[in-house]
Amino acid sequence: MLHRSFQAGIVASVLLVAPAAQAAAPALSPEDKASVAEATAYLQSLKTVSGRFTQFSPNGTTSTGLLYLQRPGRARFQYDPPAQMLVVSDGSKVSIVDYRLKSFDQYPLSQTPLVLLLARNIRLDRGVVVTNVDHTPDGFTINARDARKQADGRISMRFTNEPIMLRGWTIVDGQGQETRVTLGALSPADHLDPNLFVLEDGRNPPNRP
After folding, report:
1. Among 111, 113, 123, 187, which residue has the least CB neighbours within 10 Å?
2. Is residue 204 part of a domain?
3. Confidence at residue 12, expressed as pLDDT on a 0 to 100 scale
4. Domain with 103 in it: what CATH number?
5. Domain-located, residue 38
6. How many other CB atoms are found less than 10 A from the CB of residue 203?
7. Does 108 reside within a domain?
């Protein structure tokens, strides 16, 4: 797993995306399949949006921040102070900087769960197996597990109904550590600065846009 809990929340564990042979997917009910299809079409329709997020980490800490998303491929999770972290996807790689620890890591986008949201062609079974869908009066949650039989990573993506909106996700890594991210309303954000999606190997905090 990635070695810091905030990474588990946004980029999660590489256990959740596996190029290895996938385990057989459980049979989904027609209602489940319809919800997965609806969520897929919704995510595919997202273009350029922004919104607030709140992250609940396994160590009990809560962080907030601002999300910028520009599909396909680009996203920025900008944490509010006192957190000193930044996660940026530039379309091919995900860069993670912790200014307090002066650390900088990069991962192929295709090897992180962010690909579920940012791929040019959305597939909610990419690297994971959808196990079931929990339905409530006001929405549904798509539950999936690591595609490899030997790993225990799980992800749940929460959506509202009428209108459908992504409200967040929960990731449980192979060690059972749970991180939950809740999203506020995602609003259209035209003409985003391209520099939002560029993160060089700089350990000093940049000027925030």
Report:
1. 187
2. no
3. 43
4. 2.50.20.10
5. yes
6. 12
7. yes
Classify residue 209: in a domain, yes or no: no
Is residue 137 scored above 90 in pLDDT?
Answer: yes
What would the pLDDT profile of 153-196 be if each residue is shown by its tens digit?
788 999 999 899 999 999 887 778 888 999 999 999 888 899 99
Number of domains observed in the structure of the chain = 1
Average pLDDT, the chain: 82
Could you list the residue range(s) of the whole structural domain that residue 86 is in? 5-197
pLDDT in tens, 21-64: 445 567 889 999 999 999 999 999 999 999 999 999 888 889 99
